[in-house]
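// run 5 | inverse folding | seed 20
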């Protein structure tokens, strides 16, 4: 990949990051609703004996209920997670957020320190909620596995998603610890 392509992809990614960091909860809810509605319709159509109109009605109704809740929770989580970085100018928020997740450590010591604070704050939060997250993912895996056996084989897709969630919950603290070490090594 050329340097120009990396720069273009990075600037496009920064635009999405900035939008996500600044978006109010209702905009996040609309975006999540638009993403979730087709999957909810397919879920109701393929896992039950529902016609397409019934599945569409149920999927849209479920999305109308769930999307605002997810939008509000996501906005609150973003606000809480970015608070860990401290006071930053608006133009640095997306850079610090991206540095906390991936890529090389920033050259600027202030940005690197803010990204390190952000990673350490997230690591504390993950460790505090790890037992609850593991329990929830395991219960969802068992329930979706039961539904796959008892109702429809399409539930195996949900079981696979729950298994992936369980792996993410198990792997996330180690990944964040490695990221913190990388950011500390940049000093």
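// decoded
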């Amino acid at each position: 990949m050329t340097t120009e392509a990396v720069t273009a992809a990075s600037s496009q990614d920064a635009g999405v990051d900035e939008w996500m960091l600044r978006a109010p909860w209702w905009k996040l809810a609309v975006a999540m609703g638009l993403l979730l509605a087709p999957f909810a319709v397919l879920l109701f159509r393929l896992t039950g004996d529902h016609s397409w109109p019934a599945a569409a009605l149920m999927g849209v109704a479920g999305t109308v209920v769930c999307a605002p809740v997810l939008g509000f929770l996501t906005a609150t989580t973003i606000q809480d997670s970015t608070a860990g970085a401290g006071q930053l100018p608006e133009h640095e928020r997306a850079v610090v957020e991206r540095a906390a997740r991936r890529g090389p450590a920033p050259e600027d010591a202030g940005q690197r320190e803010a990204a390190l604070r952000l990673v350490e704050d997230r690591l504390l939060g993950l460790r505090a909620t790890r037992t609850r997250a593991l329990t929830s993912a395991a219960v969802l895996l068992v329930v979706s596995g039961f539904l796959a056996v008892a109702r429809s084989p399409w539930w195996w897709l949900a079981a696979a998603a729950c298994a992936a969630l369980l792996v993410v919950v198990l792997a996330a603290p180690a990944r964040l610890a490695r990221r913190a070490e990388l950011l500390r090594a940049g000093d």
